[in-house]
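Team,

Forwarding the record for the chain on the shared tracking sheet. I've put the sequence and predicted structure together so nobody has to dig through attachments.
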Amino acid sequence: MPATAESSLAEYQAKRDFRRSPEPAPEAAERPHREPIFVVQEHHATRLHYDFRLEAAGVLKSWAVPREPTMDPADKHLAVQVEDHPIPYANFEGTIPKGSYGAGEVSIWDRGTYEPAGGEEQLLRGLHAGKIEFTLHGEKLNGRFALVRMARGGRKENWLLIKIRDERARRTANGRATPKSVKRTRSSRTPSPTRAGGSESPPSRIEVTNPDKIWFPDDGITKGDVFHYYAEIADRLLPFLRDRPMTLERLPEGIAPGKPHFWQKHTPVHYPSWIPRVNFPTERGRDVEYVLVNDRAALQYLVNQGTMTFHPWLSRIQDPDRPDFVLFDLDPGPATFSDAVRVAKELHSVLADERVEAVAKTSGKSGLHVLALWPGGGDFDEARQWARSIAERVAKEMPERVTVEIRKASRGGAVYIDILQNARGHHAVPPYVVRPVPGAPVSMPLAWSELTPRLKPSKFTVKSAPRLLARQKADPMADLLRSFTRTRKPARN
């Protein structure tokens, strides 16, 4: 790493014992991103706070923000500047052990890219002068922001994190979003999808713009290829997306390094009025107007806007607090894919003992997903507890191959069964979607007989999947879809 970055990380290194803490050491070098990144990490230390970090000069410039950042310009937040962190810290999630500096749980609250006003040199000058402005492109935080230093003095410098008034700003009440259409607690009220301005019908045809734009440079796969793939598999994908609040993973310039890559929950006001959306407050009270992907036109419009992967909730808007299904995410880590296959088979056996229907699919990356019909009548907390008990049973049956340990450093070479996505407002990777990694792989549902150690997940791609799906004698997802839609009819647009 550059000498300037190395010296600026001296305080970070002095405060930590990397033999105990899973945090990345300063020497865990990572090349600066072509487009600088930001991250906000939720940190349950002695007091809950939010670590706000901007990539600059080869490090993450960092502030501790006691209250959750907001899109409200009237809500100015104290931000205490802390030591610089290494760039790999932007991906850190885990538990800092007791007795260590910053002990507690760390998770990623928001992330994305940002544009410093005037470029990086101006930002570095502004850090010295006491005021910087920048534009965030994140999942939760978007638009123009500023950090303004308060009076100097004391061991740490106090700044204010401020949302600048722009078209992305949103007014809240008392620093919390005012619920508009649904309540956070379970109730008999079913929110209805709305449209932004009338009863305009979806167009009968959506045209792709810039179809020759390269989205996967190593493979020559274009935006048009991805658009036409989604058009081909729409009838299979839409039943899984319908009436589920959606997070969009957008890469409008493709997957090349440094290109924009951001997560979108809130529906922009410029989206056509015929695209339905539904408003839910988050667990922290902020309103989010999620898009609903209920028909082919909405699907194709969003792909044309740069959406590569769709991430739906595990519940539908008719009953947002109760999941339809439970997700078991099998992460091989240092293990092999064949190890993950063996674990998936054992998981299937345990679920069969419980008389629970389940489907396996490739994740689209290195792992496997098992989707199981949620057999209980309870909410996400109950479903997650049940999922944990199932995962622990599998770990007990295969102690050398399976772990439920959250910390990567404690997993050894075992396959990790992750059940943490089973929570209200969290999202899942559905079947058939494209993943933003080289090769343009897709998440492919499999018959259990197809799931063997010889299986190569990389064979399921944008180019090959439609042909392979056409050969299937039966849709592996069909029974699961019928089961969790039998008692809940889709809401009308």
